Amino acid sequence: MSDIIHRRSPVLNTIIWGLVLIWIIAAGFPFLWTLWGSFKVQGDFFSKADWTNAVYGVRTHIETGSMFTGKGYYGAWITKEFWFAALNTGMVVVSVVFISLTLGTLGGYALARSGKKYAFYFLMLALVFRAMPHITLVSGYLLPFFEWNIWGYLPTAIIVMVAINQPFTLWMLHSFFLNIPKDLDESAMVDGCTRFQAFRHVIVPVMWPGVVTTGLFSFLLAYNDFTVTATLLSQANQTMVPKIASFLGTTQTEGNVMFAVAAVVSATAPLFVLILFFQRQIVSGLTAGAVKG
Amino acid sequence: MKNRTFFWFILPSLITMLLFIALPIVSVAVQSMHIEHEAVMVEVENCGPFGCKKELQIDVEETAKLKEERPLGQFNGIGTYTNRNHLAFIEIGLALQSSNGFLDFISKALNLPFYRALAFTLTYTFIVTPLVIFFGFIIALGVNTLPKRIKGPTIFISLLPMIVTPLIGSLILFWMIDANGILGSALQRIFDDPNLSLKASPALTWIMLMVYGVWHSAPFAFIVFYAGLQTVPGDTMEAAMIDGASRWERTRYVVLPHLMPLTVFILLIQLMDNFRVFEPIVSFSAQASATSLSWIIYNDLVGTESQFFGSAGATSVLTIIGVGILLIPVLIRTWRDFNQKVV
Q1: How far apart are CA B183 and CA B191, in angstroms?
Q2: Contacts of B35 (CB under 8 A, 6+ apart)
Q3: How confident is the model at residue B341 (pLDDT cuts 50, 70, 90)?
């Protein structure tokens, strides 16, 4: 039967393959192009004369004597100290993921097991908080943070990002905990465990798939954030994304846009690896909220 | 679960959310009622080669002291809301009186910064969201028919535009449509116009931003729909075929209704996310032709000379009200579902 369902006319097949091919090119080509171009000089990547220059590296060959050049990367990582921003991003992301998950698993577990009306109200409130544009919250933080002299430091940005991500983390973990059978922790409690002991010894060992998936999304939210890091961190403590944004102004005038291109490629690489290894978790995470409705 | 246990489990989350989400909303509201101090002026006698003159000068020390004592600034009530940079009641009133025709009034209103940003934000939200759902659905249908072996790599590539940092993704596109970039110069050749620049024209900038928006969010809709397609009930499908339903009728009457709840979910998420459109405007340096509500708040906060907390606060409060209006239908729906479940 399923064979008949999947039998299609050649015309339809061609249309489908064409559409999918167009989409794959639209989705993938920009990244491939920028990766290739980041090893060229600016005259090639932004070639007025002939776009094939960027492919063959004509000007790159004239200027550096080879088809590829690492000048952009050297300029970004060493001259402009991008390595320091990368280090900051690493610290911020690891802390945000760790703290978000710790708070989120406790809260998400409670929300999944409560069954009271106020747990529902709490989730609704979290949904409203999730909808707040981040910049509106940031404009509320800035003035108090200036007053208390905690503006500009990494821990401030970390705790703010944890809070902003909390509604999302709670929703996601809550729906994962709903999938873990209630009998598991309840039978532990019948055997004399307190609620926390049941959570610690029975639920924690089986919750890792959900936690890993949620952790991935916390990672992405922290790694991709521009609003919080651009406004709450001082120039000296910048992470990668605001650093790239500040490259835009300076490099355009100095004529080294290639530094920014190299930095962009460098910042994309970890995400690429992430999808490579965790594609299945990302897909299941995206649909976790949806399938529940 | 006992109330006490629930409370202790939820407490850490609750504290961070109250401190860093609820409190800032209050703080934004308070800030929006205040305005920066006026500079303290002193009269000084300035003596030069042509005699002495009395001049008013800013007393830097006193001004700094005043700022130190009351950092919020002076109370302004709803003054900031009604001024030219926000709701602009006076200017709108004038425009209503003086304009001939509806279009003239609209064009006058769009010269005001707040309405300009609001117009772009709403246009962006209500054009990008349906397009994302449409393209996501088409891609999902297409990918679903591919042989198993190439599905994985296709999904991998499809995820890229969504996973990559919005600021970086929009930069990559921006460089390609630069007049000297690959797409920009290709377009110049196609339209045979060497001066064609996507950045110079407001209309093209708007289109460009929306193209980015669809490119960035379509993968999300695609993945959700794709997962939904895996669960289309086989029995219903077979029954429809036995009844002689064509491929189109099966898609229309079996697949679409099955995916409806997912569409609502995508709609909700996309409305929330598109309403806060911000990063692409920074990457595309599009502020001359397109600003969004988030962007004008950001612009007030990172000003080079001074920051306008009052102004940013007022825009933030108006934005939050906008989000509230967007969310009301969803909240009512969820509310009804929940109450039905309880009864």
Answers
A1: 12
A2: B73, B74, B76, B79, B80, B310
A3: low
**CA–CA separation, A97 vs A165, rounded Å?**
10
Q: Does A198 touch chain B (CB under 8 A)?
A: no
Which tens digits make up the pLDDT trace of A80-130? 889 999 999 999 999 999 999 999 999 999 999 988 888 888 988 888 888
Per residue in A30-73, pLDDT (tens digit) is: 999 999 989 988 888 887 777 777 778 788 888 887 888 888 89
In a domain, B82, yes or no: no
Report chain B's terminal Cα–Cα distance, integer Å. Answer: 21
Measured between beta carbons, which residues in chain A are less than 8 angstroms from residue B14? 107
Predicted complex ipTM: 0.90
Q: Is 90 exceeded by the pLDDT of residue B195?
A: no
The residues in A 70-89 lying below 8 A from B, measured between CB atoms, are: none
> Which residues in chain B have their CB less than 8 angstroms from residue A132's CB?
21, 25, 320, 323
CA distances from A114 to A54, A176, B3, B5, B11 (A): 60, 14, 8, 9, 14
Instruction: Let me know whether A119 and A22 are in one domain.
Output: no
Domain region containing A123 = 80-292
In a domain, B225, yes or no: yes
The string of DSSP codes covering A153-187 is -HHHHHHHHHHHHHHHHHHHHHHHHHTS-HHHHHH
Span B114-131, mean pLDDT? Answer: 95
Q: Which of A54, A75, A96 is the last residue of a domain?
A: A75
* The pLDDT of residue A23: 94
On whether the CB atoms of residues B294 and B276 are closer than 8 A, the answer is yes
Element (H, E) at B264: helix B256-275
Same domain, yes or no: B178 and B317? yes
Same domain, A64 and A85: no
If one counts the domains in chain A, the total is 2
